[in-house]
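Design review, sub-item: ligand-bound model
Attendees: FS, YL, KQ
YL presented the inputs for the nicotinamide-adenine-dinucleotide complex:
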Amino acid sequence: MKKLKVKLDTNSYEILIGSGGLRHAGHQLKEKGFAGKVIIITNPIVNKLYGNALKQGLTRDGFETIFLEVPDGEEQKSLEAAGRLYHELTNHSAERTTPILALGGGVTGDLAGFVAATYLRGVPLVQIPTTLLAQVDSSIGGKVAVNHGQLKNNIGAFYQPRLVITDIDTLNTLPAKELVNGLTEVIKSAVIWDREFFVYLERNLEPIKSLDAKLLDGIVFQSARIKAEVVEKDEKDVGLRNILNYGHTIGHAIESVSDFKMGHGEAVAIGMLAAGRISNRMGILDQQELARLKCVIEKVGLPTEMPSLKPKRLIQAMEHDKKVLEGRIRFVLPKSIGTVFITDEVSPSLIERTLGGLE
Ligand SMILES: NC(=O)c1ccc[n+]([C@@H]2O[C@H](COP(=O)([O-])OP(=O)(O)OC[C@H]3O[C@@H](n4cnc5c(N)ncnc54)[C@H](O)[C@@H]3O)[C@@H](O)[C@H]2O)c1
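KQ shared the predicted structure:
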């Protein structure tokens, strides 16, 4: 498996990426000094698909496995679900040294991570992401959280995993919609950080979409590397890490104003393009670069047209978002493909004009 290191002083860890990761999980955990009992938090869908493979991979190396299931769905990222898990951990006599393995997508990773960060003031966490989004984004960087009331991720912590095991074979069963969600984050990584990677994506999107294992391995690795590099420079999200929100300021507003009829990936794709358009209208992003961005988004099968939602409502939604600083909406805008900048100086009329239609 390919190895990436996230360098965060005493919180440093490795990300292992490749085929067959589940089968070798026991060996990898042993190498990191773990032994005995491990708790696996997952959901019924992922457990049915991959629970057995992971169990075998762990028992072969002498681990005792306890699987805890949480129902599927974003609504499970809650204090109630965390409460039930604390209860089960106590019933299974989990101790300070007992690792929690998060097997699943971003929902499982965020919830299991939150529980690991808080149970007994913190037990070791191992992320085993099974969606493309989780493999390239949510399993890396230590943001763990639950939702509370109407607010997303507003109760949480920075809690780095001890290890991330990314088995790209799990992507074979991923529904197309989830794959596209993940590809949005892959495109985001390239636009914010790595022009060469963007060129690679432009040339290879077709085989990537058809899940060519060799290419997938590479794009997961490159995207994970970018996330790791950004996190290393700003672990606690006080500055640079904000660039990971590229496309999300407008994207979240679209999701919320459309009553979540528009999916996350689709909304963020439109958000990335709208941010590109704003930058272009400010005289920063070149027209050709904007066209290339649009082309890649189109090729993935993501929308490029602004949905017919009222710009004023989108602006209101953005104003309620966490990305507002002293009342001004903060945008991450591309300067050119591979470089972005953060600004809160976009004129309200330009925002409104852009949200009224991308063309
Ligand atoms: N912590 C972070 O830094 C961070 C970053 C980005 C997103 N997130 C969070 O991630 C969450 C979204 O994550 P997600 O997109 O992975 O959604 P998800 O966890 O809900 O997974 C999507 C769907 O795919 C299913 N699934 C998972 N793996 C599968 C597989 N291999 N085969 C078939 N089905 C599979 C799941 O059961 C679920 O139905 C959100 O809650 C978001 O807030 C966190």
